[in-house]
Design a protein that fits this description.
By secondary structure, the protein is of the alpha/beta class. Helix content is about 35%, strand content about 15%. The structure holds 2-deoxy-6-O-sulfo-2-(sulfoamino)-alpha-D-glucopyranose (SGN) and calcium ion. 2-deoxy-6-O-sulfo-2-(sulfoamino)-alpha-D-glucopyranose (SGN) binds next to loops.
Length: about 500
């Protein structure tokens, strides 16, 4: 008996010891503005995304992943810091500069023995990154063609080629040359599919023969929603024929756009040839009104999806690298966007609103041995939860001030309290004229308080009105529900220590 007990102890110790000495590697791929509506793993038929779908098949598809603040820098700041914007300090892209002196999760990983790297788009201002053994990042938004990168020592380098491919090149090089004695965390930030949706040359025209159906809310009149009435992100009015859709009368006009001017003569020839032919056809059609708006929508879809094709290919490329280099079994891979995006819903492009298309983000995760292939996770999770989840998976310390909740127990089928409500706060009040707002989402309802640009409350019954067209705030029938939701919202505001929202919450609206 004693002999068996000893053997049992040895086996358990070896297993534990083995686990502690074999923490998982981590690869997080974050794209920019990639809409779940365009990903086939989410049921989209607009295009096929085999790279992302494969991660979902081999791991989990998150059908209810949300962001705390639907815009680039703030989303990445939340991801890094495990905290909401009001506590990590990065509220908007316009005025914020990320304070790296925080307990960001990559620092915690370093303390636990990891080597860490960020390659590609980061968009957190110009402070020197910390917590990263290596970085090579795009300055600001970066460029699709012939991008510059900034590396350690503020060294700027210029690289010929297409950004999505170059980011993969750098990622593979770093993986090749890393210290193989240590576990690693690599964050790959893609520029794709950000405005102005410039596809890689071989992908130009890949959707030319496809006509995309208009979303049912394309001609939304924004009745009952004041903030939606004043936005400036519509395909009809905001999307530019020259800049966004590359319709130029001559090369001088095209060269006024920095993103085109920087292309090599060879690249420019192929690129502009393609668009000039389309421009010629368009002129013959002489479109205006809705017909022109619908033409713009088709062009937008074609450019966006062709840009996404390279993104998906490059996601597959990194996953294939991991598999070929024997890293598949001990590496967590997450693919997600910094937020969702409008693909013509409500007549829009861009993001920012707490409405579903921008609030929700695509997310897939492969974690062999923990996540069963083909898993679907319908629970609410947020980007603020990723940092604590990764730290727990790495056996590293989760800082006290993190506001996210690790969902590792959910993945492991261990004791886990699912989130019943989501809290959101968006601050920027400039480009695209989306009024700042905060709010709560429950399984059934969404309550939003807009402020600054527009002062108003909105309430949606997501069961009856999944497209969020009918603001029922103030309706007599909803009095009880509203009262309860307001209390829940206040509880969240207090839980997350959002003092600004608390003040606004009590402010009456005239
Ligand atoms: C740029 C874009 C906007 C976009 C913001 C934020 N204009 O300013 O359309 O909303 O970025 O995007 S552009 O003329 O420069 O393309 S984010 O992804 O960085 O948050
Ligand atoms: Ca973005």
């Amino acid at each position: 008996m004693k002999k068996y007990l000893l053997l049992f102890t040895i086996i358990i110790s070896v297993q534990l010891f083995g686990q502690q000495n074999n923490p998982p590697n981590i690869v997080v791929i974050i794209s920019d503005d990639h809409a779940f509506q365009t990903i086939s793993a989410y049921g989209s038929t607009m295009t096929q995304t085999p790279g992302i779908d494969r991660l979902a098949k081999e791991g989990a598809l998150f059908t209810n992943a949300y962001v705390t603040n639907s815009i680039c820098g703030p989303s990445r700041a939340t991801f890094l810091s495990g905290k909401y914007s009001h506590l990590n300090g990065f509220r908007d892209n316009e005025n914020s500069n990320f304070n790296f002196n925080q307990n960001i999760f990559v620092k915690q990983l370093q303390k636990a023995g990891y080597q860490t790297a960020w390659i590609g788009k980061m968009h957190l201002g110009d402070n020197i990154p910390q917590g990263l053994d290596y970085y090579n990042i795009l300055p600001d938004q970066g460029h699709y063609y012939n991008p510059d990168f900034i590396g350690s020592g503020n060294k700027r380098t210029h690289h010929e080629g297409y950004v999505t491919n170059i980011i993969s090149d750098f990622s593979e090089q770093w993986l090749d040359n890393r210290n193989k004695q240590k576990p690693f965390c690599l964050i790959i930030g893609h520029k794709a599919t950000h405005r102005i949706w410039m596809p890689d040359l071989p992908d130009l025209g890949m959707f030319e023969t496809k006509t995309f159906p208009l979303p049912s809310t394309f001609y939304d009149d924004y009745k009952t929603r004041k903030a939606a009435q004043v936005q400036d992100m519509s395909i009809a009015k905001t999307m530019l024929m020259g800049y966004d859709l590359k319709m130029f009368d001559n090369m001088q006009e095209a060269d006024k756009i920095g993103a085109i001017k920087r292309m090599s003569p060879e690249q420019k020839m192929v690129f502009m040839d393609y668009y000039n032919n389309i421009h010629k056809e368009l002129k013959e059609k002489n479109l205006n009104g809705n017909a022109l708006t619908e033409w713009k929508y088709q062009r937008y879809m074609r450019d966006y999806l062709a840009t996404a094709a390279s993104l998906d290919r490059n996601i597959d490329r990194i996953v294939t690298y991991l598999d070929k280099n024997n890293l598949a079994n001990n590496t967590i891979v997450i693919y997600m966007s910094d937020q969702g995006f409008y693909m013509g819903e409500h007549g829009w492009f861009d993001k920012r609103f707490m409405y579903e298309e921008s609030f929700r983000t695509p997310m897939v995760m492969r974690f062999p041995g923990v996540i069963k292939p083909g898993t679907k996770i319908n629970d609410f999770i947020m980007n603020v939860d990723i940092a604590p989840t990764l730290l727990q998976a790495a056996n590293a310390t989760i800082p006290q001030d993190y506001q996210g909740q690790s969902f590792l127990p959910l993945l492991k089928h261990e004791k886990y309290t699912p989130k019943k409500e989501l809290y959101y706060h968006y601050y920027e009040n400039g480009e695209h004229s989306v009024s700042p707002h905060f709010g709560i989402k429950t399984e059934r309802y969404k309550l939003i308080r807009f402020y600054k640009r527009i002062e108003s409350w909105e309430l949606f019954d997501m069961k009856k009105d999944p497209d969020e067209l009918n603001n029922i705030y103030g309706s007599k029938k909803m009095k009880k529900v509203t009262k309860k939701l307001k209390q829940q919202l206040l509880d969240l505001i207090e839980k997350y220590k959002d003092e600004e929202a608390k003040k606004l919450f009590y402010e009456p609206i005239n």
